[in-house]
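The freezer alarm interrupted the setup, so I double-checked each line after restarting. Inputs confirmed:
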Amino acid sequence: MSEEKGLYWSPRGGNNARDFWGSCHAFTSKQEDPKTGKMERDTILIDLGQHEQTRDYENGIYDKVVPALADMIEVPGYPPPAEDKRCRALLLSHGHSDHIGAVATYVQMGAKLPPIFCSKMTANLLEKDFIEAGIDESKWPVINEINAGDTLEFGNIKVRTMSASHSVPGAFSFKVSNDEATIFHTGDTKGDPSSFLHGGVNFGDYEKIVSEGPIDLMTFDGTTATVPGHATYEADVNKAYSDLIKKHSDKQMILPMAPAHAERMAAIIDACAKNGKNVILQGGPVMDATYLGLKDSGYDLQKYYPNIQIVGGKSEHAEKLDPKTTVVLTAGIYGEANAPLAQFCRGNDKAMHIEPDAVIITPLIGTRSERLAKLLAECPKTKNLITYTAKDVPNLYGSGHAQRDDFIKIAEKLQPKTVAPIHASTKLANKLNDMASELGYGTLGRQIRNGESVKVTSKGCEVIENENQNWFGWSKATMDRPPEMFKDEYYTNEAARAEIEKHKRAYYEKRIGKVPQNPKKTSFKEMLAKQYQRGR
Amino acid sequence: MTLLIEIAQKLEEKYPKTDLIGVSDADLGKMLATVGEHANHDSKWLNKLKIAWTSARTSEDDITLPYD
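Predicted 3D structure, all chains:
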């Protein structure tokens, strides 16, 4: 990285070639002490996510893949970072695992994490990660709860937190600045001022920020930013579900949803309560953590809606309810093979109970909805059921990410000199760059890949290329050892990936014996033993 | 944490057909008393216990993508 003064932004995860998992962004201030003239350097991180699609079930090797940060965080097995390069703080934009999932992994590695700053909701979800990972409470890092509107200082870096509108409450955008420049980091957001559980985006705050000085760079959520229109407001999603539940009030309803969508969960449960429908949660551990995370954060949905029962699936409580009075919230919107609904479609009647005249609502659109649609259409027990998709009722689909009109609205308020996509594959980033350019905003001309950095000053931005695009692969097999570090190429190049897989497999088979192709399902007691072992 | 998991195990053995997620704090307190544990814990601790229980009960087969 250059030694010239400026505010440097470096994505360390999330700006991947083919996807956007594992968000992590470093911000480094380099400016002179006005008294001594000495160059001072301060670094903070925003987000520490895990890559979501690396669990290698086929050979059971990698448990977690996370951004490699040994250059700024002390990780056992790696040389300690230079004193002036150590990260001073870790801020978390929101509580989804592609933004916080690596924190528990780093704690398990024995890394010395800097102090963590996040919302109460994010803190609660983070703690659930620690519990799930079996980390003893004495080893949990210090978590400082912050709120929208707070101003924090880390050396020469000033951070202002802003409410973001995502699919989980307690989401933040951040204004990061030093004496040289200002960067607005959106995190995951859309332009919804009416989020279901909390305030959503506050455009008044945006105006206040701009009045304090120009935004030199806006790193913008590129997940769906080039899709026409604006992302559906949660209030509209709520109405769409409520209308359908009312229409079929005498039938059991099966509602697959993304289990970490806390806003969506609340919007649907609210729709159920309006129509007197009990709720069965059958979405696995992430859905459970989301529900309990909301409860810990003051959103106790059962207390909000005492007229209905909210119970866990596969339980006596659920069995006692007349199915026709229930809505089953379940996971597997992508038709994931292990989700209860997919299992049911494949003939496992015990996976979940579906009435012969149930109604199914699937929220996705386009190619992403095809696998689940195919499963439902081919299953003799579901093919004749009434099924709604977002194609039939568009407001059922409500992404937590900005679309084109959200971008236009946010950019108009903030008037950034330059826009850079984050949380976007190369293809998506290129599209967003083109769109921003057409709308008259400056861009960096291409995706800034993990490991590269951008020097930002009031005079402009300069890209500093770097080949250091590393990730840590951390596995059960190496949990007592330092993690392996490997290149981002693992995700970018099919041939390279195949070669690495071949090498890994041979390596592990030599070390731990033959790796089963399909690991057997472990019993509850075995899982407990594993948890217990991990906890120690 | 070990303690949470041990308590989760006791509850799982005593109430194999119960999903703790939908159990109220008051009922969970009563269930804890039946397995010889303290019944008076705050809501946050009870939620921790529920997560320990759900994560221990989960196999990797239950993993689904959490977002859209």
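Quick read of the result. The mean pLDDT of chain B is 82.
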